[in-house]
UniProtKB/TrEMBL annotation:
Keyword list, A-Z: DNA-binding
GO molecular function list: DNA binding; DNA-binding transcription factor activity
Protein name, UniProt field: Transcriptional regulator
PANTHER family: HTH-TYPE TRANSCRIPTIONAL REGULATOR ISCR, WINGED HELIX-TURN-HELIX TRANSCRIPTIONAL REGULATOR, RRF2 FAMILY
PROSITE patterns: HTH_RRF2_2
Organism of origin: Paramagnetospirillum kuznetsovii
One protein family per Pfam: Rrf2
InterPro entries given in the database record: Tscrpt_reg_Rrf2, WH-like_DNA-bd_sf, WH_DNA-bd_sf
Transmembrane segments: none
GO cellular component terms, semicolon-separated: cytosol
SUPFAM superfamilies for the chain: Winged helix' DNA-binding domain
């Protein structure tokens, strides 16, 4: 589950994708986010290179919305997408109670959850999410793939 901070961060980035520049107070009011929480989120978004100062009172996206993937924003605010540490690519930790990672049924399922979540979020741009264009995922024995109905990364269609 993503945290409220990540949800608010996504709302703020979507707002900026639609309105070019805005003040923190304007985004907080329009998106019903506490201004102090949004200030903390903006620091993370700015450090990660998603937003920048447009003027002393306004911020804007630092990159076009079709080049900012939802997965990048989620990781910048919440950290790894993995539901348990033993399947994380960036914050791996072996489970203390696990005798064999290769034989662990829980790890196998949680890796699929991580892979599927990452696949969807990393293939969906802020522009796509704002337009309601989400990837259609096909599961088969060969793994995950996008259906032909998804236009692909950053195309805006």
């Amino acid at each position: 589950m993503i945290t409220n901070h990540t949800k608010y961060g996504l709302k703020a980035v979507l707002h900026l994708a639609k309105h070019d520049t805005s003040s923190l107070d304007d985004i907080a009011d329009r998106e019903t986010i506490a201004a102090d929480a949004l200030a903390d989120i903006f620091q993370k978004l700015e450090r990660a290179g998603f937003i920048k100062q447009a003027s002393p009172d306004n911020v804007m996206l630092a990159r076009p919305a079709n080049q900012i993937m939802v997965g990048e924003v989620v990781r910048a605010i919440d950290g790894p997408l993995a539901p348990i540490p033993c399947v994380s690519h960036t914050a791996y930790e072996r489970c203390n109670d696990c005798f064999s990672e290769e034989a662990c049924e829980i790890r196998r399922l949680m890796r699929l959850v991580r892979d599927t979540t990452a696949f969807i979020l990393d293939k969906t741009s802020i522009l796509d999410m704002g337009a309601g264009r989400n990837p259609r995922v096909i599961f088969d024995d060969a793994g995950l793939e996008l259906s032909p109905h998804h236009a692909g990364r950053g195309t805006g269609t």
